[in-house]
Amino acid sequence: MKANIKGFFKPLVESLIAIIIGMLIGAIILAFSGYSPTEAYVALFDGALGSKYGWAMTLSAATPIILTALTFGLGARTGLFNIGAEGTVYFGAIAAIIFTNILGNVLIGLLGGIIAGLVWMSIPAFLKVFRGVNEVVSTIMLNWMAYFIALYIVLQKIPNPDDPNKTIAVPVSARFPIVIRGTELSWAFVISVAAALIAYYILWHTTLGYELRVSGYNERAARYGGINPKKAVIWSFLLGGIMSGLAGATEVMGRPPSYAISQGMANIYGYGFDGIGVSLVGRNHPIGIIFSGIFFGMLKAGATAMQIEAGVPLEMVRMVQGIIVVTVAIPGLLDLLKRVVRK
Prior knowledge:
The model is unreliable at 1-5 (pLDDT under 50). The two termini are 26 Å apart. The chain has a single domain, classed as Orthogonal Bundle (ABC transporter involved in vitamin B12 uptake, BtuC). The chain has a two-stranded antiparallel ribbon with strand order 1-2. It is mostly helical. 77% of the residues lie in helices and 2% in strands. The chain is built from 13 helices and two strands. Strand 1 and strand 2 (163-167) form a beta hairpin. It has helices spanning 2-32, 37-49, 52-77, 85-102, 106-131, 135-157, 188-205, 207-217, 219-224, 229-254, 271-281, 286-310, 314-342, and strands spanning 159-160, 163-167. The longest helix is centred in the first third of the chain and has 31 residues, at 2-32. One of its GO terms (molecular function) is transmembrane transporter activity. It comes from Thermococcus argininiproducens. This is ABC transporter permease. It is a multi-pass membrane protein.
């Protein structure tokens, strides 16, 4: 019991210390650049948490990155460095748009995202298991392939004939209801939290989850224990594909006002990469990822307030955000490196 409590509080304390250090470094940079750190951080927290609208925007921003973080986290627990969520998000969003325009239903849209995620993530899974290709190499290359394939589909196959700046929209019947009117928070957030809880249950309360964790901890020991590490790798990729495919689907089905993919895919770009940081901060634990995702959502939601209320330029806001993110992610990254070395 004491070991469990220590195992819970130690990462929590380390993350809190990292947050404080990151904010102090950011404050120093703001001060040397001629801006008030106090005003900037007050604006950040007030914009993200100071009102019902702020909370709604924070949770809305957290929705897709919780799901993409689960992709990385499931891989990390299996001893993989799966950074392929970015490309999978694109196809999840495209599939949701196409499926819902054929049959305007929320479940059909989610199914489209899941299928797209499974199909795309099966490629690096095959390359890893049957060809021995390192997942970092394959997923980086596949991310770029996904970007240009998806861009072609967005611009050439599903453009909105009435508005060339975006694709055709998800029909009204397949959109997630808005939780708080006038905000971007929809019931898609519930999907992301439910996915995290399901991932937690799979990892710690099923035979499959045990096999994933043992394979990630020590592949040789897993073999001696009758566990097939290749099977664990395949399941890890497929489960991760489901999560990031859902991230793309929920983004276009639950994000007003367009409910579509913008030209250049600006509104779905970067979620896969953000998910890596979210997972590291959450120590690759599904429950930790929920809170980490909300923290990242707070940084995103409060950025506008920092610009308007504190007069901090966008470039400086992003620099401060980046410093905080990198600092907070370091403990999780060290844990991951220790696990790799031990393996």
